[in-house]
Specification:
The chain is α+β, with helices and mostly antiparallel strands. About 10% of the residues lie in helices and about 25% in strands.
Length: about 350
């Protein structure tokens, strides 16, 4: 081989190995793709005719017939439907591989069932509060003296008003007294009252004292009449229920409860004569079109009958004296007055 001359032994081995690999590749392509890969002749496939339908050998022609529509419907109706819901279930998710069961340590599982304790009833307070005086308190009033009546009081017991301890005066085992400041009744609402010792070992039942709003005037200030002397001014009021108007001067008592202290064109200052509360009554200014003054009540006119209307004959009967004769009556002879007759003294004189 001339192409191997001048080559070393290693180069010759490489050339021989490459040649063998090429031959093996050609052999593999031949077995994979056949002769067509190398340009060989191809054999043309000749069409062959399929055999025609043959009749059954026994002569039975019903075996090759197509069933009719009625026969097919009968088969569908008569064939039972096999329904198995269990076969359509979803696959099981299996165990969570990230959740590991850790058994409890030995001895930690209780061997006896857990017992629940029945709640005990609230113990009876050792101190009893029956009632307090006064029982009617108005918001915004002055400080007042609160008296607690009950049983089993001692010198160590203290009065609590809305959970605030008050300076307590021990009077007897059935009576205590405390001074309630005015700032604790500024707002209306309910207040808790109870008695207990400083350490809380002895306590009483709770009572509720309602702080009510003070009564307010049930009338409106609608105007004022000012005079030269300031102490003679007059205020005009209107009752909100009866819609009646009335007037009052300084120091007058309105509605048997509120005294007029001052009168101005803008407001009136009133004082409750029973409780001492003062109320500032502003001038009533309704919005335009929202207040309608009721028409004055007038007396019925003569001759007017409710439900019937005007009757002129009624006026004639009212204006005519009871002993007057009708206008169309005939005149009658007048009798002489009794004063013209002579007195009858029993003597027969001509």
């Amino acid at each position: 081989m001339n192409f191997l001359e001048g080559k070393s032994q290693a180069e010759r081995n490489k050339i021989i190995a490459a040649s063998l690999l090429g031959v093996l590749a050609l052999i593999a392509l031949y077995f994979a793709f056949g002769r067509g890969f190398f340009g060989g002749g191809s054999t043309a496939a000749l069409p062959t005719t399929s055999p025609g339908p043959q009749r059954p050998a026994g002569g039975d022609r019903s075996a090759g017939r197509v069933p009719t529509t009625a026969a097919q419907n009968l088969e569908w109706i008569s064939t039972p439907v096999e329904y198995r819901p269990g076969s359509f279930g979803s696959p099981d998710a299996g165990r969570n591989i990230f959740a590991f069961y850790e058994p409890p340590p030995p001895g930690s599982i209780p061997t006896q069932p857990t017992t629940f304790r029945t709640p005990e009833p609230t113990p009876t307070p050792p101190i009893f509060v029956a009632y307090v005086t006064p029982q009617n308190i108005y918001a915004g009033g002055r400080s007042f003296r609160l008296e607690i009546n009950g049983e089993k009081f001692s010198r160590e017991t203290r009065v609590y008003f809305s959970q605030t301890q008050l300076p307590t005066t021990f009077i007897s085992e059935q009576r205590l007294a405390a001074e309630v400041p005015a700032n604790m009744i500024m707002v209306e609402g309910s207040r808790q009252i109870y008695v207990q010792t400083a350490d809380g070992k002895l306590f009483s039942n709770q009572l509720i004292l309602n702080v009510q709003p003070p009564p307010k005037p049930q009338f409106q200030f609608v105007g004022a009449i000012a005079r030269r002397l300031g102490n003679n001014d007059t205020a005009v009021f209107r009752d909100t229920e009866k819609r009646d108007e009335f007037s009052a001067r300084l120091n007058d008592v309105v509605a048997n409860r509120f005294r007029v202290l001052s009168i101005s064109p803008e407001a009136v200052l009133l004082e409750d004569v029973n409780l001492g509360f003062r109320h500032r009554l502003e001038l009533f200014r309704p919005a335009p079109g929202t207040f309608v003054i009721p028409p004055p009540v007038t007396a019925p006119q003569p001759g007017f009958i409710p439900g019937r209307g005007f009757d002129p004959s009624l006026i004639q009967r009212i204006n005519r004296p009871s002993n007057a004769a009708p206008a169309n009556a005939a005149p009658q002879d007048q009798k002489p007055d009794d004063d013209d007759e002579e007195p009858n003294d029993g003597s027969d004189k001509p």
